[in-house]
Design goal:
Strand 5 and strand 6 form a beta hairpin. The protein contains 10 helices and 6 strands. The longest helix has 17 residues. The protein has 2 domains: about 35 residues, no CATH class; about 180 residues, Beta-carbonic Anhydrase, Chain A, CATH 3.40.1050.10. With about 230 residues, the protein is of the alpha/beta class. Helices cover about 40% and strands about 15% of the residues. The radius of gyration is 19 Å and the shape is globular.
């Protein structure tokens, strides 16, 4: 199996390269535990690795990945599904005391495209049923965008839904009582951003304007000021 063999070869490169270069940091993390300041909720898409996008070091980010980087609405009933992401969020906020939560979406998201096109509608588990149930969280936004696209064919429905899903996830984060309380105290900031795989552009949500604005990569220019948002990782 060449894919798994490639993973083992990659481990050997890591063990003799990056691990040795950051050995002091790894030793400190092993002894003292983790204390990341940021929780990143990103897509499982193999093309979107937040540790690479933000060029972070080990221990700097607590990362949760799922299909289409979605956050479910707060649901205290343990008998219901979709609690894996909620558990990770709870741990990051209440135990690790992160200062920021970033919902990181991306362009050309397969989960968003499947939702928009109804690829797994009425599918059974093993045939896309689990995907359909998970993506049902954004069904209202999807239906609104579908209707808008019918009225105006120039709308890029997939891009619109990618952005809408980030906004929805931020709204859902605020439905968690412990997040709302921490945000009200000024101890936690919620952020949204979208990474364009083809262009390498990061667009950050400006809560004042409601728009996603491209972040400049020109170190000589003034950094983009986005109130209440992530300015640097």
């Amino acid at each position: 199996m060449p894919e798994f063999k490639a993973l083992l070869e990659g481990y050997r490169r890591f063990r003799t390269g990056a691990y040795q270069e950051q050995r002091r940091r790894y030793d400190a993390l092993a002894d003292k535990g983790q204390a990341p300041g940021v929780l990143v909720i990103s897509c499982s898409d193999s093309r979107v690795d937040p540790t690479r996008i933000f060029d972070t070091e080990p221990g700097q980010m607590f990362v949760v990945r799922n299909v289409a980087n979605l956050v479910p609405h707060f649901d205290p009933d343990p008998t219901h599904g979709q609690h894996s992401t909620s558990a990770a969020i709870e741990y990051a906020v209440t135990q690790l005391k992160v200062h920021h939560i970033l919902v990181l979406g991306h362009a050309r998201c397969g989960g968003i495209k499947a939702s928009l096109e109804g690829t797994f509608d009425n599918a059974q588990p093993g045939e896309g049923g689990f995907i359909n149930r998970w993506m049902s969280q954004i069904a209202p936004a999807r239906d609104t965008i579908r209707a808008a696209a019918q009225l105006s064919p120039d709308i890029d429905a997939c891009s619109a839904l990618e952005l809408a899903s980030i906004r929805l996830s931020i709204d859902n984060l605020r439905s968690f009582p412990f997040i709302a309380a921490a945000e009200a105290r000024g101890e936690l900031h919620l952020q949204g951003a979208l990474f364009d795989i083809a262009e390498g552009v990061l667009r950050v949500l400006n809560h004042d304007t409601g728009k996603f604005e491209a972040l400049s990569v020109d170190w000589e220019s003034e950094p983009v000021q986005v109130p209440g948002q992530l300015k640097a990782v």
